[in-house]
Amino acid sequence: MRLNPRLAALPTYPTIAIDRIRDQLLAEGRTVYDFGTGDPMEPTPAFIREAMRANVPDNCRYPTVLGGRAVREGFARYAQRRLGVDLDPDTQILPTSGSKEAVFHLPLLCIDPDAPDRSVVFPDPGYSVYYRGTVLAGGLPCPQPLSGDYIQRIWELPRDILQQTRMVWINTPHNPSGAVMSRGDLLRTWETCREHDILLVSDECYMDVWFETPPASILQVATEGVLAMFSLSKRSGMTGYRSGIVAGDPKVVAAFRALRTNPGLAPQDFVNAAAAAAWTDESHAEDRRHVFAEKRAVLLEFFEEVGLEVTASEASFYVWVKAPNGDGDAFSRELLKAGVLTNPGSFFAVTPAGRDHVRFALVPALKDCHKAIAAMRALFARR
Ligand SMILES: Cc1ncc(COP(=O)(O)O)c(C=O)c1O
User: Can you tell me which atom of ligand 1 is nearest the CA of 38?
Assistant: First the structure.
């Protein structure tokens, strides 16, 4: 059968690749400390699970793309409380089935595969769906290589690239590095997009996973020509529920809503009920931050002890570590000897950017982080 050649040309999805390695190690009877895929182990708070159970009806009918008002109101209250931003729940907020599908589908909103100006700019290394969604929508991927502080500065791109660009992705806090864009960076990014009539989409799914200062949101800068994406996956331990939010410019939200009626993309009403409960509560997000902060602290202490450099990791669920020999793939393989599973930087990049790093996701429980550290200490002692 002849398949879409663009699909065939995509590299294996990073989590599939990393899960294969894990499963092979487990089959060999090895202990694995899985810092690979960013899927938290901490349980979903009980009140969220209960909100979902209480909302499974006898007759579960089709959900709507807009979803009920409760989830949108819950998010509007969150935006007011956390960001000091007023959003209209009727026109500026849409629920999504996790942010991944929305990231994947968004290029369909602005890319005309027959037009010459169909570039999509995204951070590289970065979340691989920016690239995949662009390619499958018929857009031209335009990875912006990051290094040093891992801050994406789109205003430094050549003018002719910006003129060909229909859509810019930014990601703050950034996966894989954990870098956070300042409000000044966000303003400059927005001004550049407005100048060139580019849709600016800010992926903010780690907005509530921070350690010292709450990160700024693009919504605090502007909503015109802007969408921001939020997720309950890491904030509320809800990866399996698939629940996110898109918010911003009412005209763009309306267009995205219309687009989503085609495949019928709509979270189930009972998931939206759980999401409404999650967005309404701050204390569980705070508790989770403490758990991640504890794991992060023990890892940072160990990396300092053995002289490993941690780059840019200010917030998010990740610690971005420079490979001692400058080769992230080799370092990741070496760590496997201690049973420590990480993602090499090459998993996140289309260009060579970030290949000298590995990403640790703060997944294993604290006691397993200690065990993993002991195993790495022994490994480094044998070097
Ligand atoms: C940068 C980024 N965006 C979006 C997502 C998707 O999150 P979800 O679909 O769980 O909301 C992830 C998941 O790891 C991510 O790292």
Answer: 14
**192-244 pLDDT, tens digit each:** 999 999 999 999 999 999 999 999 999 999 999 999 999 999 999 999 999 99
The atom number, within ligand 1, closest to the CA of 175 reads 1
Q: Which of 75, 122, 127, 229 to mutate to test the pocket of ligand 1 (most atoms within 8 A of CB)?
A: 127
Cβ of 38 less than 6 Å from ligand 1: yes
Residue recorded with tokens 């806090």: 173
Kindly state the tokens that stand for 324: 């001692």
Pocket test for ligand 1, best of 13, 96, 175 (most atoms within 8 A of CB): 175
Distance between CA atoms of 174 and 270, rounded to whole angstroms? Answer: 30
DSSP structure class, residue 240: G
What CATH number has the domain spanning 5-43+284-381?
A: 3.90.1150.10
Chain centroid offset of residue 229 CA: 9
Residues 6+ apart with CB under 8 A from 70: 272, 273, 276
Atom number in ligand 1 closest to CA 243? 11
234 C-alpha to ligand 1 centroid (Å): 9
Asked if residue 239 has its Cβ within 6 Å of ligand 1, the reply is yes
SS3 273: helix
Structural domain boundaries of the chain? 5-43+284-381, 61-280
Q: What is the mean pLDDT of residues 359-376?
A: 96
C-alpha of residue 100 to centroid of ligand 1, in Å:
5
Ligand 1 atom with the smallest distance to the CA of 174 is: 1
CATH code at 61-280:
3.40.640.10
Q: How is residue 292 written in tokens?
A: 């991640």
What strands lie across the sheet with 140-145, from one edge to the other? 93-96, 244-248, 226-231, 199-203, 165-171, 119-124, 140-145
Q: Which residues of 288-327 are buried (b: 16+ CB within 10 A; e: fewer)?
A: bbebbeebbeebeebbeeeebebbbbbbbbbbbbbbbeeb
> Is residue 189 a contact partner of residue 181, using CB atoms and an 8 Å limit?
yes
Q: Where are the beta strands (DSSP E) in 65-133?
A: 93-96, 119-124
How is residue 304 annotated by DSSP?
H
pLDDT tens-digit readout, 274-330: 999 999 999 999 999 999 999 999 999 999 999 999 999 999 999 999 999 899 999
